[in-house]
Amino acid sequence: MAETAEELDIKALQGKQDKIKELMRRDPKFIARLISQLDKQMHKMMLEKHKRSEEIKADQAALDKIDASISTHIQPCLTRLEQDIQYKQALREQVAGQLQGDMQRFKDMEREAAALISKARHANSKLMVRARKQLRICSGQMF
To answer: Running DSSP on this structure, what letter comes out for residue 16?
Structure first.
């Protein structure tokens, strides 16, 4: 027949109680020692708890000090930096726009200069052709 977990727990507990009763019969100071050990353990636990709570308080004080430092020193500097960055970004965008416009004007001037040079070369070649013709005409009349 299968036993349930509850029945097993009860049997284990009864086994422990029987063991404790046996130990109490053998040693009458057994309970006193157990209580003394429990008291010592509780005392150590309370000391640890107190120590940990003191550490938590010290850590909280350090965190508060860091928060105060952030709000009084770092935050104003960060605000100024953010403003400077915004100003410089706006200035950068403005300069980039000006540069784009200047580059476009330069390219237009470059095309215009190339067209003028081409026109001047064309006019020069026409003049040279006319000048040669006139020289031939003039040199032919002289001879």
So the answer is: H
